[in-house]
């Protein structure tokens, strides 16, 4: 193996290490965001449960399907 090949390999290994560290940092950031959202959803659920039945039904009629899907996905993740 030539000196140039060794330098290239070393550079690639450093690049892989940086990629792994970046991916781990991003995963940690996503996890922290999901934990925060979990707490937010708990608060929203508590407020929803305190609403009158009529207000709950009006709220549910006006909510978008995408919002429902997002809330369900977050609830599954947080359980």
Verbal overview:
With 79 residues, the chain is an all-alpha fold. It has one domain (3-78). Helices cover 91% and strands 0% of the residues. The termini are far apart. 0% of the residues are buried.
Features:
3 helices, 91% helix, coiled coil, 79 residues, mainly alpha, rod-shaped
**What general form does the structure show?**
rod-shaped
SS strand fraction: under 5%
Average predicted confidence as pLDDT:
81
The major pleated sheet works out as:
none
Specify Rg, calculated over alpha carbons.
23 Å
Number of domains: 1
Describe the oligomeric state of these chains in a short phrase: single chain
Summarize the helix and strand pattern as letters: HHH
Question: Whole-Å distance between the termini?
Answer: 52 Å
In helices, the fraction of residues equals over 70%
**Total number of beta strands:** 0
Number of distinct helices: 3
Poorly predicted regions? none
Structural class: mainly alpha
